[in-house]
Amino acid sequence: MSTMLTTNPKLILVFSGKRKSGKDYVTDLIHKRLGPEVCCILRLSAPLKEQYARDRGLDFKELLGSGQYKEQYRADMIAWGERRRKQDPGFFCRLAQRSATQPVWIVSDARRLSDLQWFWTEYPNQTRCIRVEASEHTRRQRGWEFTPGIDDAESECGLDQGIDFDWIIRNDNDAPPLEEQLHLLFSLAEEKAGTETS
Ligand SMILES: Nc1ncnc2c1ncn2[C@@H]1O[C@H](COP(=O)(O)OP(=O)(O)OP(=O)(O)O)[C@@H](O)[C@H]1O
Ligand SMILES: C[C@@](O)(CCOP(=O)(O)O)CC(=O)O
Question: Which residues, if any, are the signal sequence (predicted)?
Answer without folding.
Answer: none
